[in-house]
Amino acid sequence: MKHSLSLYQDFGPDPVACRETGHYQREYIEGFVNKWDELIDWESRAQSEGNFFINMLREHGARSVLDVATGTGFHSVRLIEAGFEVVSSDGSPEMLAKAFENARARGHILRTVQVDWRWLNRDIHDHYDAIICLGNSFTHLFSEHDRRKALAEFYATLKHDGLLILDQRNYDAILDVGYSGKHTYYYCGTHVSVSPEYVDEGLTRFRYTFPDHSTYHLNMYPLRKAYTRRLLQEVGFQQVDTYGDFQETYRDTEPDFFIHVAQKGYREPIS
Questions:
Q1: How would you classify the pairing of strands 257-263 and 158-169?
Q2: If 0-12 CB within 10 Å is exposed, 13-18 middle and 19+ buried, where does residue 169 land?
Q3: Which of 45, 130, 265, 269 has the largest count of CB atoms under 10 Å?
């Protein structure tokens, strides 16, 4: 798998003006990807989220899962070890290479496919019981057209009663109240600093600083919770349940992350 030769992230002369869906591929350079697991801390992450995703998938009878935002492989590996049939995809070849390496170190061989969500069905031909899109990855899409196209591709790749699990940061709180970043559940690395460097209604630019003082950035679109739920419903998902940091009940400003569980199965309208 080919790696990026870039040693530095390039956001152009005005980083906060860089609002392009495909740019994330140039943000996940090899140096950043090699430090990503310091940010996640697999062991702490597994303890903090427990079996939330495993239980959710089992409750809905899912066996085959397409992980469309594999990253360095944390959820793909956990689901494989829980007995699911998993295909791992990502838009970043650097991330997929790292995921494959991480899985192999744990005794697994990932089935990997590099994809662009907007043309998912061009490269993914099977249908799945469930799709997971985790790690705040959906916020790499900067236009509504791209978001709708990606969700439509997810919808088409699911079986008739399939399930989509999609998460996002709590951008409502970041935009309206300010960033707290408790890092209780998702980014569990204890020596990594994560904070928004710039925020407006169309961009959140996060800065990641590691113990060796290396610094990287990600530019992401600040999705509001209600907006994401509406898009899911307009694409055709019949029921959308939203959890805050794995809890069913929460105050909107409290969670670091929202998790949307969207069911495709058709429901007859109530007369």
A1: antiparallel
A2: buried
A3: 130
Instruction: Decide: 208 and 136 in contact? Cβ < 8 Å.
Output: no
Identity (one letter) of the amino acid at 172? D
Tell me how far apart the alpha carbons of residues 135 and 90 are, in angstroms, rounded to a whole number: 12
> Using N-to-C axis directions, what is the helix angle for 74-81 and 42-49, rounded to 10°?
60
Cβ(161)–Cβ(265) below 8 Å: yes
SS3 call for 150: helix
Q: Which SS3 state, helix, strand or coil, does residue 198 take?
A: strand
User: 235-265, pLDDT tens digit by residue?
Assistant: 999 999 999 999 988 888 899 999 999 999 9
How confident is the model over 69-101, as pLDDT tens digits?
999 999 999 999 999 999 999 999 999 999 999
C-alpha–C-alpha distance, residues 251 and 49, integer Å? 19
C-alpha to C-alpha distance for 192 and 188, rounded to whole angstroms: 9
pTM of the model: 0.93
Q: List the one residue out of 35, 105, 95 whose CA is nearest residue 67.
A: 95
In the block, which residue shows the tokens 């670091």? 256
Q: Tokens in use for 94? A: 């650097």
- What are 199's two structure tokens? 């925020």
Measured distance CA(46)–CA(185) in Å, rounded: 9
Instruction: Please report the DSSP string for 99-130 in residue order.
Output: HHHHHHHTT----EEE--GGGHHHH--S-EEE
| Pair 26, 4: CB distance under 8 Å | yes
Packing angle between helix 74-81 and helix 52-59, nearest 10 degrees?
A: 60
The tokens describing 27, both together, are 């943000």
Contact 88, 67 (CB under 8 A): yes
